[in-house]
Design brief:
This protein is mainly α. It has one domain (2-141). Helices cover 58% and strands 7% of the residues. It has a two-stranded antiparallel ribbon with strand order 1-4. Strands 2-3 form a two-stranded antiparallel ribbon. It is elongated, with a radius of gyration of 16 Å. The two termini are 28 Å apart. Bound molecules: calcium ion (3 copies). One calcium ion is lined by residues 121, 123, 125, 127-129, 132.
Length: 145
Amino acid sequence: MNTNHLKLTVLAAMAITLAACQTTTTSTTTPNRFETADVNHDKFLSLDEINVYLVTEIFDSRDANKDKKMTRAEWGATGDAGRDKQFKARDTNGDGIVTMDEALAYGRTKGMAKQVLREADTNKDGKLSEAEVKAYYASREGPAR
Ligand SMILES: [Ca+2]
Ligand SMILES: [Ca+2]
Ligand SMILES: [Ca+2]
């Protein structure tokens, strides 16, 4: 339940940020979220690029004081068994803090990037084009606003 909720939150966040460029394509100066996620600028998102993007989105949205360290409280794991489990799964060295590296490592193996890639990669070339990303979120979230 909590995991599903988190997934929906992430998907919604990614949909909003990735779809945000759709209405501003005329401006070349507006930061394009797809281009931001496309770190090596080959016009496709690889599994790793998707992972980095998703993890960064979650991390930044929860890392309230922006010190790149997520505490149990920032994760919302205090007094929430489901969240606490998620936190522990990411805190691999068990020091009570999830670093960006820990979050990325978790995302690479168990995060949503693989699922997103599998579901959105309609031509099965192992990477996502901007059109595939847009189609994926359009089908899941309805028209972007
Ligand atoms: Ca790329
Ligand atoms: Ca840690
Ligand atoms: Ca593809």
